[in-house]
Model the fold of this input.
Amino acid sequence: MSIALSIRALANERRLRILEWLKQPRRHFPPQVDGDLVNDGVCGVLIARKLGVSQPTVSEHLKILSQAGLVRAMRIKQWTFYRRDEARIRAVKRAILAKI
Done:
């Protein structure tokens, strides 16, 4: 994963907000029927609802975050759940600081 790809993913207010919410999912999202908010991640439907956008719109934001390695996706039944990849986020922070 390139630093530039991560920076492009972070250069969007909605994606930054999603990452912020996923940092403390129990604080920002209601309990889910399937999947634990922390261990499995947050259902994309709940993220779309909280962000106030359509499912396709949030899917595109989450795809960009996933491609940058900032979030991980997990399928449970017909739903996709997302959680932060803390190790990757730490690596991106270190790489950015090393470059500037």
